[in-house]
Amino acid sequence: GSEYGLFLSDGQITWSVHLNGRYVNVTPAQRVSLNEWHHIAGVFDGNAVRVYLDGEQMGAKPGSGDRKTNALPLVIGGDVNRNGVGTSMFRGQLDEVRLSTVARYAGQSFKPSRRFKSDDATALLLHFDGFVGPWLFDSSKAGAHAKVVGDAKLVPLDAR
């Protein structure tokens, strides 16, 4: 019953958007290789659900209508169950996470940025530069600072 989800399991990307009572899922055949940096983007523009890997469109399906919303927390690096608890936690490294109020990417390809900047369409921007207590700061205007749970840790750039 979530609004959307971007999943990575065994190198397989799945981008799901809940529209008009059903999920529109895009699962490209291309798998993510290990031990190298990748840019993964899920886009919903009101007409289609698309997945990009390293700036190349890997899959798309038509999709329109109302997105289902709920009061569950956003879990980055995992899924969320109906009780709001994180499940299926990701084992890997995340460099940045950005949620936008607009479809940032269109067409077949674009040049991915290594570090994002906040703008008026940025709803959440996590750089993963440092924790303060249990908090990871949101660099968007929303200031929706993330609470770090579990055994997440920061890894210096030179150790990646």
Structure, explained:
The protein has 160 residues and is mostly beta strands. Helices cover 0% and strands 39% of the residues. It contains no helices and 12 strands. The chain has strands at 4-9, 12-19, 22-26, 40-44, 48-53, 56-62, 79-80, 86-87, 97-100, 122-132, 135-138, 146-147. The strands form 4 sheets. It has a 4-stranded antiparallel β-sheet with strand order 9-10-11-12, with no helix packed on it. A hairpin with a 5-residue loop joins strand 7 (79-80) and strand 8. It is globular, with a radius of gyration of 16 Å. It starts with a strand and ends in a 13-residue tail after the last strand. The mean pLDDT is 91.
Tally of alpha and pi helices: 0
Q: State the end-to-end CA separation.
A: 35 Å
Helix content: under 10%
Computed CA radius of gyration, to the nearest angstrom = 16 Å
By DSSP, the count of extended strands is 12
Mean pLDDT level = 91
Low-confidence stretches: none
How do the strands of the widest beta sheet line up side by side? 9-10-11-12
Given the helix and strand composition, which structural class is it? mainly beta
What is the N-to-C succession of helices and strands?
A: EEEEEEEEEEEE
Give the CA-based shape. globular
In what range is the share of β-strand residues? Answer: 35-45%
Sheet bearing the most strands, described?
A: 4 strands, antiparallel
